[in-house]
What does this fold into?
Amino acid sequence: MLVIKIGGSLTDFDPLLRDVAACQEPLVLVHGANKELNELSARLNHPPRMVTSERGEISRFTDAITMDHFLMAYAGKQNKRIVERLRALGANAVGLTAMDGGIAIGRRKPNLRIKEGERVKVLHGDHSGSIEHLEPKLLRLLLDHGYLPVITPPAISHEGVAINVDGDRLAMEIATAIGAERLLIFADTPGFMRDISDERSVIPVIRLDEVEQVAQFGKGRARVKLVAAAQAIRRGIQAVGLLDGRGEHPLIRAFEGAGTWVTA
It folds into this structure.
């Protein structure tokens, strides 16, 4: 059993979808749509607002208007185009958000503390949150009947409100809940690099006891992905790949050992 995550930064993931459609192993596909959301929000005169938390993490401020755009980009265009392509390639794909059937339930954090320079501010009305419970029943039902689930944020809050959650963490929670052996996270980089300016500096294998030390080389999303990978290993996933989704046959290259693999 596999869980594959397609990063929202990938601009051409058709080669990966071809590999996914040809894969004989049962899998769940999780995807983002950051690029689509940024472009849509700009066209609708509500450009994305990226903010820095007190801990230094960069995230999107998801107000009510942005959540409407989020649903259009993630659950609408991107999800359905992926399903369309996979079905054209012969895969029995079904597109869902993580809130459908209560797959991922979490806590909304309406007040977001951010740093602007040396000042700390509180933004109200955020529609972001964190996953607290993953219910795999619907996913297992689909997998048991030969379907390929294609899942995207948002999740649903305990109050029944759509919430923006991190896609890598969603993939990790799904992989853990369905008992996947491997979690494969594809992005527009060749793996986890010691030097982000040098693609030849990819670290091929990172053991769990090395993650804290190696994480210092990561910036922004790369570090978040490595932390999510470590969490997945601690919760029983055998291996997590931080992989290059660009070029031909990215899934086959991953199976041959390309990219970075996090292991116990």
Summary: The first strand starts at residue 2 and ends at 6. The chain has one domain: 2-39+75-104+132-263. The chain has eight helices and 16 strands. The first helix runs from residue 14 to 22.
